[in-house]
Amino acid sequence: MAFRVRLRKLHAINAWIMLLLAVSGAMLYFPPLRALLGEGRVWLKQLHIALGLASLAVVALYLPSIGRHLAQLSKRRAQQTNLLFVLVLLAGWIGSGVVLWKVRSFPPAWSNAALFMHDCLTWIGIPYMVYHIATRTRWLSTSRHHAPPLVKLPEIRELGTYEPATGTTSLVISRRYFLKAVVGTTVAAISLPPFLHWLTSSLRDTNLNALPDAAATLPDFPQPPPLPDSLPPKGGGAAGSFRIYTVIDMPKVEKETWSLTVDGLVERPFQWNWDTFLAFPREVQVSNFHCVTGWSVYNCTWEGIPLNRLLELAGVKDGVKMVKFYSSDGVYTDAITIEQTWMEDVMVALMLDGKLIPHDLGGPVRLVVPQMYGYKSVKWLNRIEVIGEEHTGYWEQRGYAKDAWIWVPPS
Ligand SMILES: Nc1nc2c(c(=O)[nH]1)N[C@H]1C(S)=C(S)[C@@H](COP(=O)(O)O)O[C@H]1N2
Ligand SMILES: [Mo]
């Protein structure tokens, strides 16, 4: 009996943890909920990780009992299957969760795979949990013993009963089976379409073509002629899907009022309008874009002005500390140290794969810092300020590491 009590307790604890994980995970994942969270998302992510570790502890406490438990369930195939299924789910969630948690200790390809797995298991796992809860509530599970079946026969099984008298098998549907089927179908009908939508869009090469076109979202910015390396894109076309992030309503960007300022501790500060910006020589680079949450877009062909050309033009004074980047959303900033400007691939970009950067991706002009996680790559860039003190960027103030270097292969 003590064994059963112990299992029951572990099950109850696990159920609560899973519920909290599902709620916090869903909030972190779905863009509208994510937007609602704002900066709370960093703390919620911490909580989600802590809950995940707690569920790992529960699994660890359970595992020594698994042999005995399975033996006990040997005559209950459905429960055995449920148990194994749940254990596989948990293992997958925890394993991929650890990679996502310790993202900087793994190559981006690992994080990409872990994120895909984490999401995929969630699309399967949450509907399964709903089904599991719904079909295990008392009114359903006790109906087997107390409520009369829809069709009365001496021996009732879930489905199909052999009748010795006539030698035939008749379909007998108990109330319990019927309700399970209804619940199962409903849950599947609700969750399958968005799951398939998610699956097809994550297996798609890129979401660049599916994004609202720059022509529609940035109507007054005409497409500038791309350099030969830009179109057709030297990198062969971006592979992977951007998730669209913003911490506040996306700012309106208009050509008339658009400007880029380079100022602060420089000899020759300047402010450009769109035409002056376009007149400056541009370059093309192919690089990968990695977000610290695990997704990547490979082989992006960016066209724009290397940061260093702008800094040379402005003339950086001695003794400065950082270069700070502002977004025209008025809220988002980030910075790199003056030493880190050795990176020649930090770019003030205006085209991606030969087309003006879509507004959703921070267009028409965003920063790209390919060797660091995406949060350094400020969208809707409108100001570059050279400063003499430390600056902590938007997400860094909220818990992201100031050191944003992407995992580099050990040499
Ligand atoms: N202005 C602004 N820039 C931003 C962000 C943001 O929310 N606002 N998110 C950052 C993060 S965390 C990432 S991963 C990338 C995402 O770029 P995307 O939205 O074009 O996919 O933009 C970065 N730059
Ligand atoms: Mo990110």
TrEMBL record:
Q: Which SUPFAM superfamilies match?
A: Oxidoreductase molybdopterin-binding domain, Transmembrane di-heme cytochromes
What UniProt keywords apply to this chain's record, in alphabetical order? Membrane, Transmembrane, Transmembrane helix
Q: Which residues cross the membrane?
A: 12-30, 42-63, 83-101, 113-134, 177-199
| UniProt GO cellular component terms | membrane
Q: Which domain of life is it from?
A: Bacteria
The Oxidoreductase molybdopterin-binding domain covers 249-395
- InterPro entries under this entry? Di-haem_cyt_TM, OxRdtase_Mopterin-bd_dom, OxRdtase_Mopterin-bd_sf
Coiled coil ranges: none
GO BP terms in the entry: respiratory electron transport chain
- Name of protein: Oxidoreductase
